[in-house]
Write a structure and sequence with these properties.
With 286 residues, the protein is an alpha/beta fold. It contains five helices and twelve strands. The N terminus is likely disordered. Bound molecules: zinc ion.
């Protein structure tokens, strides 16, 4: 074989909500970590220490089957992002290339996703759809809902599953699940999210698929509180922003701050970061 495919995945963990407090204590997120696709590194996040932690270095695992390149890849970006209403540099990327450009998804092809909603709380059906719409507007990335799946969350999910999804990269998997099925959700962690990037021989990286796990029982509890749907939406948007390639920031005004004080959604820094993530290179070769 000629080129060696190198693949690695980063997984963003989010911690949670002080369950004991009736006051608006806010959401606590854990920290994004980089893990190898085939060798999951320990990435348990101590509760309440998220803000001071930084991701580890990227781990890479060599060799994976890949689909024929260029599936649905167009000549130019499919969508146009909304220009952020105000400038801000209060954002960080989870991964960058050697030239400093952020690692994101190709804007020239749609990003398919499937939802395992078997455990979704009542009334939560639209939260994911609404959050996807928000991220689509912020990035210009075109999302396509491929519908329901029974695929279970997995820490070493195969990015190419032709038997299940055909000869293309597997779609983004969004799962309403439990700590039993997704052990990284244990304790106060409410969700995990991240994407797999792919490159040839150290060349530029691009995300090809991702996964997002939501702790259905915890979110069901949150949804019973006042403003519960706003908090749940904030969690989903925060996780989707990790999936798209945003890292935490130390600025408490941003949704990518590790703690949410008020569920106000994406702020200026978040929006400027997502805008850039929607303008990464197209990848006919992937
Ligand atoms: Zn986070």
């Amino acid at each position: 074989m000629g080129t060696t495919a190198r693949i690695s995945r980063n997984v963003a963990l989010t911690g949670l909500i002080a369950a004991a407090a009736f006051t608006a204590a806010g959401l606590f997120y854990g920290d994004p970590r980089f893990v190898g696709l085939f060798e999951f590194r320990n990435s348990t996040v101590p509760d309440g220490q998220a803000a001071d932690q930084r991701p580890g270095s990227a781990a890479e695992a060599v060799g994976t089957d890949a689909p024929p390149p260029g599936f649905e890849e167009a000549e130019r970006p499919l969508g146009t992002a909304e220009v952020p209403p105000s400038p801000s540099d209060s954002f960080k990327f989870l991964a960058t290339n050697d030239d400093g450009t952020p690692v994101g998804y190709s804007p020239c092809r749609p990003l398919h996703y499937v939802v395992n909603a078997g455990l979704a709380p009542a009334g939560a059906e639209n939260l994911v759809e609404d959050a996807i719409g928000t991220i689509a507007r912020a990035t210009g990335i075109r999302f396509i809902n491929d519908g329901a799946t029974t695929e279970a969350p997995s820490e070493d999910r195969d990015p190419y599953q032709p038997e299940t999804y055909g000869e293309r990269w597997a779609p983004l998997l969004i799962s309403w699940t439990t700590p039993e099925a997704a052990p990284k959700l244990k304790g106060q962690v409410i969700g995990t999210g991240g994407s797999t990037h792919y490159s040839f021989d150290g060349g530029p990286k691009t995300f090809v698929t991702g996964s997002l796990d939501l702790d259905a029982p915890q979110l069901a509890g949150e949804l019973e509180r006042p403003q519960g749907s706003q908090y749940a939406t904030a969690v989903i948007l925060h996780e989707l922003s990790h999936v798209m390639g945003l890292e935490h920031v130390d600025d408490p005004l941003q949704l990518m701050y590790p703690e949410i004080g008020t569920p106000d959604g994406l702020a200026a820094g978040d929006l400027n970061g997502l805008y850039q993530l929607g303008r990464t290179a197209c990848r006919k070769d992937l």
